[in-house]
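We store sequence with structure; for instance:
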Amino acid sequence: MNYIDKTTQIYRTNEMTNLYETDFVEWTVQQVQALNNRNLKALDWNNLKEEIEDLGKEQIHAVSSFIKRLIEYKLKLDYSSDIYPRNHW
């Protein structure tokens, strides 16, 4: 890779990072286009990595919250004498 190629790559990386910070929706559109076109040079690898990691963490948190809510409702059903909220739980 020559100097011009490296400079161009650094410019594209900085441009993508700026877009990620200023217009997230447009950044996602461009990343999807790059993936669809299999244009590896147009991908913002650092921010893509972070977003994928965060997505995984969000999914784990969502499942954990759902399980906690199910346990809470089951305990309420088992130990509550109120009839009214049973249909809600």
